[in-house]
Amino acid sequence: MTATPTDRPAPAAAESWERFEALYRSSRDDVYAYVATLLSDAAAAEDATALAFERAYRKRRSFDRARGNERAWLFGIARNAALDELRRRRRHATLAADPEDPTAVDAAATVGATDDDVLRRTVVRAALDALAPRERELVSLKFHAGLTNAEIARVLGVSESNAGTLLHRTIAKLRKACHA
Amino acid sequence: MHDDELTPEQDDELVALLTAERPRPSAAFAERLDARVEDRFARPAAPRSAPARRPWRFTLLPAAATVAVALTALVLVLGDGGPGADPDQAATSSLAAPEQTGAPDAATPDAPPPAGGAIEDRAAAAPEVAAQAPAAGTDPATRDRKVERSASLELSSDPERVDDVAQDVLGVVARFDGIVDQSSIASGTTGGEARFALRIPAGELQPALAALSRLPDAQVLARTDDAVDVNQAYVSVRRQLANARAERVGVLRALRAADTEDETLRLRARLDALERTIALAERSQRALDRRVDYATVSVSVRGDSDQGSGTDEGGLTLGGAFDDAGRVLEVAAAVVVIAAAALVPLLALAACAWPLGRALTRRRREQALDAAV
């Protein structure tokens, strides 16, 4: 079937779509990881991730490259979606978080792992849980989503040096907790 | 070694462990989201729980405010009678019937009623309104009373049509069997004037006034109706007349019976005085009858160059159409200006509220994060 001229998207629209699709492909799992860390709820994280990409798609033409790169912009949208979900959860005061399944990660991750590996991971997980939400967010942005300090600063609305300092303190806290 | 200063191997290990803790989306979710993206989010998501939405009232608020402002502006403009409205032409058509002011209680027919009633109806006394005025003397409560009526009518006309209007006035007078006591007509292209002092049969006063108000080339500027109850005076004259006549009968009888010259002379003198009194009373009664039977009407016709500029009832002219179009545009512009005046503070308020609202939302989001477990 051949596309008629009217079926063919305009060049600017096609370019916009291609850029969005590339951003989606490169960031889908990262966004989910970040949002899931914020919400601690897989189902809510799925909703918020989908909502974030939908919002990003609708607003893709308003993206201003001068104000940061696309990933930072996308993670800003994802952050707002996740925080809106947290707000909604507070308002409705329902059991929004899924009961934790302690075997969920272990089942996949412990294949071939030694007892020492399992122990180290358990310690790190406990240290992560002990962090404040903002600190967990920093860790998530840095190590789960793989954002640079500049991108983190853009997402959080702080200066790059401030983001670096916050990250350094959080890592130090984690180290301390892991090696206590 | 300080806690903060671990070996690079330890750092790498921590990073690796943190990275390994990264949550991963389920394959089913990834597949669903891929499909939605491929579909370009054409279908709405069916989320586990609906995301927080804006309450509808916030969405409708600007629309409702805009409608309210537009309605207010419209009401203000229409309430003022439009930008070109002449305050003198603000209609106060309280055409209270003159006989109402002069109508006393039927149970006390001889009780002195109010001295008179005057109703002035400025400019907006449209012919239709004038035609609807109740006819004088037709009210049963006042039919038997003696009421003296008068009216004045001020008309305006195109200067070139003053003469025609004057002829129309005379035609109306003739149609209603009226009398022209006095008239003066001065016409010209720059301005003209006609004045009439008329007497119209009282029973025909209202139809005659209605006809005068409906003259084709004239518009009513002002109309005044007056009614003065003269019943007391009428009764007084009649009583005086009856008394004088009765006394004259008595004097004549006494004169016939008089047997001395002195008495005869005295009775003749009295008879003469009574005759004069009777004549005077009869004159007064006739005068009163004339004043009651005929209403005095003064009509003035003023040549006004503003007349006939296109808004006549006559017909549609190009100039009139331009004038009407100008007025419509003027009213529309007034509505826009008033709406803008009302919207400016609203927009200023919205401009201030917008960043405040965003800051508040941001703050609430951050609070939600702080409150998260």
Q: How would the blueprint of this fold be written?
A:
The complex is a heterodimer of chains A (180) and B (373).
Chain A: H1 11-39, H2 42-58, H3 70-92, H4 103-109, H5 115-130, H6 133-144, H7 149-156, H8 160-178
Helix pairs in contact in A: 1-2, 1-3, 1-6, 2-3, 3-7, 6-8, 7-8
Chain B: H1 8-20, H2 27-38, H3 56-79, H4 98-102, E1 117-122, H5 127-132, H6 140-143, E2 147-157, H7 162-175, E3 179-186, E4 193-201, H8 205-213, E5 218-229, H9 231-257, H10 261-293, E6 294-303, H11 318-371
Parallel strand pairs in B: 2-6
Antiparallel strand pairs in B: 1-5, 2-5, 3-4, 4-6
Helix pairs in contact in B: 3-11, 9-10
Question: Would you give an account of this structure?
Answer:
The complex is a heterodimer of chains A (180) and B (373). By secondary structure, chain A is mainly alpha-helical. Chain A has helices at residues 11-39, 42-58, 70-92, 103-109, 115-130, 133-144, 149-156, 160-178. The longest helix of chain A has 29 residues, at 11-39. Chain A is globular, with a radius of gyration of 19 Å. A six-stranded mixed beta sheet of chain B has the order 1-5-2-6-4-3. Classes of the chains: A mainly alpha (180), B alpha+beta (373). The interface between A and B is large, with 59 and 41 residues.
